[in-house]
Design brief:
This protein is of the alpha+beta class. It has 17 helices and 16 strands. The chain binds zinc ion.
Length: about 475
């Protein structure tokens, strides 16, 4: 190697080093976001948000449609799971409810409660656009903008102590302001800086969750095309042109988690359902009417069974008795009939059927059921049904420390095939009540394990046992 070659080699080595270094530099081109100074604790956020949520739910009607609610909750939890770790707060409990209001809007309260307007879901062109608005709102919560703003305001407040500011946040909007302003406006009127941060973090959350971050920007155009949405997301969030460009610029630096991509089929089904309802009022119309909705918490899973433990909505466990009329669902690889007052809920590749009041979110963010059946198909290492079932049940127990076998295996017929039944005891994660879990398995022709899991509180097991048996007998396997 001569001198020139050596020189070239050194130069190439240096160039390679630069190129390698450029990769992290490109990643750094994402705008950095930091938490603002905040004299409140995350627990204060939770407390404030919970009180504001209770007030909001008395002022505005919740949409009574468990299927729509479960869908929005699922999209919401998917976004929550995509919040970058540095902005996750273990105290926060995110949950999502749908308001029966026509404005194209959504709002989130400190500590995690989020309210998504029916009008916003109907206006969005894709699930991604709907998720964009939710991701933006979620970012205000994760960045603790409500209490950061109160911290800032307090510097200028006249002699207001912490109690005074808490009082302003709690009492201020509840009676006077909220009646005239759109609810949540108190927490929603953020500075332009905060709005930009919520857009940027929202875009990151979108990408992490498998959505195109540009859908958040696209939603601005969708709203404008529909006449601006009158008093909606855009009027709370000024300067949509700049925001559109800013989000699209940021999107260049974000890698979309394509493994999580979804199509819009379920979204369209939800929109169709919503289009079938009579027109909703705007939030301003609702506020002007002065109507109150005092009992909403009773009718929708929103109980705090262990007192004030965490503030997440949990199943009430108060459910209607199973209807004697059954409805058949075709799940592709099998069909099954369930009482027609039960809902179909798709959770992480499994399907659940449960009545209203029998499901909700647990502290873990997962959906928890009190009275339900669950079906799924899983790959097994074992060809022998009992070994495959053992292995499957061990997996359930690893995820659920309270789950204990209460019986040996019993033979069970599943659509004419050899099956096994195992009964287990459990303690429900959300209600803390003792429950009985029946696991029934059989094998498909390709060797996969088909399972049904039936859950009910121990005290209700006597009356649900026959329902579970009827459901099991209705199963028809295709494969
Ligand atoms: Zn905002």
């Amino acid at each position: 190697m001569n001198k020139l070659q050596r020189h070239t080699a050194r130069w190439l080595a240096a160039l390679t080093a630069i190129v390698v270094a450029l990769v992290p530099i490109a990643a750094l081109a994402q705008t950095q976001i930091k938490l603002h100074s905040n004299k409140y604790s995350p627990a204060d956020d939770v407390k404030l948000g919970r009180q504001a949520a209770a007030e909001a739910e008395q002022q505005f009607p919740l949409l009574r449609d468990a299927e729509v609610n479960a869908y929005v909750e699922r999209v919401g939890q998917r976004l929550v799971a995509a919040i970058p770790p540095e902005f996750q707060h273990p105290e926060f409990r995110y949950y999502f409810k749908v308001l029966n209001a026509s404005d194209i809007n959504a709002f989130a309260l400190p500590g995690g409660p989020m309210y998504v307007n029916r009008g916003m879901i109907q206006a969005a062109r894709t699930e991604g656009e709907m998720a964009g608005v939710m991701a933006h709102e979620l970012s205000h919560v994760a960045l603790r903008h409500g209490t950061a703003q109160a911290t800032k305001a307090q510097k200028y407040a006249l002699g207001a102590g912490i109690a005074g500011i808490l009082g302003t946040i709690l009492a201020g909007p509840t009676v006077g302001q909220l009646a005239q302003l759109p609810v949540g406006a108190y927490f929603l009127k953020f500075s332009r800086e905060y709005e930009t941060e919520a857009d940027l973090l929202g875009a990151r959350i979108m990408a992490n969750a498998g959505y195109d971050p540009r859908d958040l920007a696209n939603m601005f155009r969708t709203i404008q095309a529909q006449g601006g949405g009158g008093g909606g997301f855009l009027s709370d969030h000024p300067s949509p042109k700049d925001r559109y460009a800013r989000i699209n610029q940021e999107a260049q630096y974000l890698r979309v988690n394509t493994a999580m991509r979804t199509d819009n089929r379920e979204f369209r089904g939800i929109q169709e359902r919503l289009n079938g309802y009579p027109r909703a009022q705007t939030m301003a119309e609702i506020a002007r009417s002065g109507r109150r909705y005092p009992n909403q918490g009773d009718q929708y899973p929103n109980q705090y069974p262990n007192g004030d433990r965490t503030g997440y909505p949990t199943p009430t466990g108060r459910v209607d008795y199973p209807s004697s009329r059954y409805r058949t669902y075709n799940e592709g690889s099998f069909t099954v009939a369930v009482p027609d007052n039960w809902r179909e809920i798709n959770e992480q590749g499994e399907v659940w059927f449960a009545p209203n009041g029998a499901y909700g979110s647990a502290a873990s963010g997962q959906t928890v059921f009190t009275h339900a059946v669950n079906f799924g198909i899983t790959q097994s290492r074992y060809r022998n049904l009992q070994q495959a079932t053992n292995d499957f049940v061990s997996g359930l127990q690893r995820n659920n420390g309270n789950l204990r076998s209460a019986s040996g295996y019993q033979r069970m017929d599943v659509d004419g095939r050899a099956g096994l039944l195992l009964t287990l005891d459990n303690v429900n994660e959300a209600t803390g009540r003792a429950e009985v879990v029946n696991v029934v398995t059989t094998q498909l022709q390709n060797g996969q394990l088909f399972y049904m899991i039936a859950v009910s509180p121990r005290s209700d097991y006597g009356s649900y046992q026959n329902v579970f048996l009827t459901i099991l007998r209705s199963v028809q396997l295709n494969g």
